[in-house]
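Curious: explain these tokens?
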Amino acid sequence: MDLTTIRSFVSLGFSHITAPGALDHILFLLVLAAIYRWTEWRQALVVVTAFTAGHSLTLAIALLRPDLLPSPSMVEFLIPLTIVVTGIENIVTRGRRELRIHTLRRAGLAAGFGLIHGAGFAGYLSDLIPGSIGAPLLGFNVGLEIGQAVVLTVAFFALAGFDAALRVMLGGRESASFRLRVVAVSAVVAFAGSAWALQRAPW
């Protein structure tokens, strides 16, 4: 296994998910996290792991059987739709977050959306790998996951700060401020996703 190649692709994967051009992926991670408190990190971990599994699978398929993937224009259209659907799901189910069935359903949703986001990464990655895919794919995935961890950590700190500000505004009512946070963040990000989807519509 070529460690130099792996390190190179780790760096590429990290920069690809954290670069300004990956704002749609970053906003998806934000809206995915928007329904969780710090104390619910286990549920969030299950969902993020499912998302990771989904996009990792698509990356492998893209390098082995690229003919199975939808067109790049369709992928670019579908990615913001994942943001919109997740935002709506946050708002509709915010009162039932603790139910185990909700975590499992949300993990299934994240895995499916991971397949779409993986297709978005795939075009970039396939242009860089002329030969053996093992080491590059491993490195790129590791870099993506490190980048995702950074994005989610920043998101959780930002959401915690937003919670604190809302609690002050609402006189310390924690449940009310949390519900308002979920709705506000989800609605704003879903609106941005809707605008992107309209701009990228392939018809």
